[in-house]
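Project standup — Tuesday

K.O.: blocked on the structure for the chain from last sprint. Re-posting the sequence here as requested.
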Amino acid sequence: MSTIFSQIVAGDIPARVVYEDETTLAFLDANPLAPGHTLVIPKEEYERLNDVPEDVAADLYATLHRLVPAVEDAVDADASTVAFNNGEAAGQEVPHVHGHIVPRFAGDGGGPIHAIAGEAPDLSDDELDEIAADIDGRI
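H.V.: unblocked you, prediction finished:
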């Protein structure tokens, strides 16, 4: 089943497209968190970041890299938050990888990325070492 983003790529659903190349598409979010809130997607449908092939991931990052300053300049933003919700438990609502460029303004009331997860866990040095080793062992 095709996601709403795949339907935008196909031209079946209109969008305010701001950038397109062979593998990526960027358009304004229909429910923006700030003026200029832009979504950047791979044209092919991948549900999670870990499903995206490395070459497409490189293209996706290159598009983000190109668009961040353009979006910030277009709305005279002081900064931006760039983020992916990777999976339903993380708040991903559309099962098609998409990066958010959310322009930020001094005093906008938004918090840092650390504010999204609630209370931070109290982890010991041993626990942190174990987690780091486990991650390293899986790469």
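K.O.: great, moving the ticket to review. The mean pLDDT is 95. Residues 4-137 form a domain with the HIT family, subunit A fold (CATH 3.30.428.10).
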